[in-house]
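Lay summary. Proteins are chains of building blocks that fold into shapes, and those shapes determine what they do. In this project we predict the shape from the chain. Here is one chain we studied, written as its sequence of building blocks.
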Amino acid sequence: MRSFTLKDIALAGLIAAVYAVLGLAFAPISFGAYQVRVAEALTVLPFLSRAAIPGLFLGCMLANVYGGQGWYDIVLGSLITLTAAVLTRLASKITRTVYSDALSSIPAILLWAGGLVLLCQGTWNTRAICFAVVSGSLLSLATRPKGRPQPSEITAYALRLASGATLVGAIIFAPSPDDWMTYLVGVVALAGAWTMTWYLTVVRLRGENPNLLIAPLPPVVLNAFGVSLYLAPLFDLDYWFVVQMIGIGQLIACYVLGLPMLRLLLKRKSLFA
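And here is the predicted shape, written in a compact code that computers can read:
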């Protein structure tokens, strides 16, 4: 393994600075149990360069010092980001197999399920479900990629139909929310699920490696379950509720924001060579 070069060190420093600045610039939504930390979009960068690993660790630590959640967030939160960055780097080495196909579907499932729970808020409306199935089916069929779907694409297309259906139906028929932030996060989550399943369908139709969709998964999972361990008692909230809120926030930051950025940067690999 080659040692870090001056370019690697400079890149790590730049990523740390950008992460910290984004964390502070969006401070109202970057800390606490209800958060969509925009800076977490940068956690996809280890997929392109190992220099991003120390950069994210340092940037997260600097941002968490300002966050005011105590040493738990400064130390444990930063270590979680470091671990996630290493796993994201490993994701870039995954070759296409049936397992990578399955892993790439997990984020869409989580976004879809989380968005549905937030929008429906514990109630189920029969009209909403029927309308969702019809409208979502039409929406998905109208934008279906050309070509005859193969068996390996059935899951991707089914998820795409489900997320599109739920998005349309739940927005129209969801009960009036007590918390509009929860409602907004639910809408964004379902929109992200539909977008991801559309992309996943295209990737599989082209026979490409879907490991790109696995790259943002480690920071989503580790932050949702790890950060919630100390934030839940800190804010006197139910652990699983905080897992849900942190998880959806991470899915939005890492997939809705981070994934498009990663796809764009892949076209300019020379910047990370």
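What the prediction tells us: The chain has a mean pLDDT of 78.
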